[in-house]
Amino acid sequence: MSETRPPKVAVIGAGTMGSGIAQACAVRGLNVTLFDTQAEALQRGLKGMDASLARIVRKGGLTEAAKRAALGRVKATADLSGIGDADVVIEAVFEDLTVKREVWGRVAEVAEEGALLASNTSSLPITEIAAGVGRPERFCGLHFFNPVPVLPLVEVVRAQRTSEETVERAKTFVERIGKTPILCDDKPGFIVNRLLIPYLSDAVFALSEGVGSAEDIDTAMKLGANMPLGPLALIDLVGLDVALAAAESLHREFQDPKFRVPPLLRQLVRAGKLGRKSGEGFYRYEETA
Ligand SMILES: NC(=O)c1ccc[n+]([C@@H]2O[C@H](COP(=O)([O-])OP(=O)(O)OC[C@H]3O[C@@H](n4cnc5c(N)ncnc54)[C@H](O)[C@@H]3O)[C@@H](O)[C@H]2O)c1
Asked: Where does NAD(+) bind (predicted)?
């Protein structure tokens, strides 16, 4: 990646995260090719970006002209050969190792030899994804947080064979798009989820053990620990199914009881109570998000 010209970015997968990452790059002046196999996903991704940027304009964070310019930098395509000139390739497809490895097999064939390659996985080992790519020294994790345009952190994940040069390039890239990189090892949950998920699980245990009501548990952590959001309200926002999958993955990987999964969380997911997106989780919501 040349330091003198802005890096060209390719984002693979135009869902929640892929479109957020594309937006974050485009706002900072980078040209982005956004690839997805599904035409509807590309349309949804572009629409989501337009709406998100419009919100930022309304809040005074961007001019209308800057919004238009950012959208103009994103090229949506269902043709993978369009990513061939990218300096940085970030994959954000379904959280499924088989899907990711299949995608990376094809991406590696068209991506530039020297490109920085990164996966946005939350729970799969980067080392395992990188193993099929053929140039594991150029591969790392770039773990963005949802919503990407709002949250400034990116975990740069160093896999077994990631080179120091790749780590440095990844950090420089993250800073280039106005985010804050932190470096972590390729261990389950990286840093944020390793600390956050047991905390969220404990809040569910506290609720099911009758320590306090959902409202009181959330108020306790907001007013007593200065958290912006209570843990149960946060699970509702993230999605109970997403929190459950993360908790199960940490428990499976570490085999440590401190990561045990609260049965109540599982029961609520089975009952279709997924949080804001389904209209009910630990709280009820008027409109589904
Ligand atoms: N949602 C979150 O809060 C969050 C946070 C951090 C990281 N992540 C990670 O980001 C990744 C994507 O998550 P998401 O929430 O954006 O998912 P999503 O379901 O919103 O989007 C996934 C996209 O990948 C596309 N896709 C699937 N197979 C593909 C293929 N073979 N080629 C190209 N595109 C393909 C789908 O069409 C879809 O548009 C996952 O690895 C997830 O773990 C998610």
From this structure: 13-18, 36, 95, 100, 122, 146, 277
The architecture of the domain spanning 9-185 is: 3-Layer(aba) Sandwich (3.40)
Neighbours of 97 (CB within 10 A): 15
**What is the pTM assigned to this prediction?**
0.92
Domains in the chain: boundaries = 9-185, 193-278
Q: In the chain, which residues have pLDDT < 50?
A: 2, 288-289
User: Is 31 in the active site?
Assistant: no
Asked if 251 is an active-site residue, the reply is no
Asked if residues 118 and 140 have their Cβ atoms less than 8 Å apart, the reply is yes
As a 3-state breakdown, the chain gives helix, strand, coil percent values, each rounded to 5, of: 50, 15, 35
pLDDT digits (tens, 9 = 90+) for 151-207: 999 999 999 999 999 999 999 999 999 999 999 999 999 999 999 999 999 999 999
What's the CA-to-centroid distance between 243 and ligand 1, angstroms? Answer: 16
From 19, 193, 201, 278, active-site residue: 193
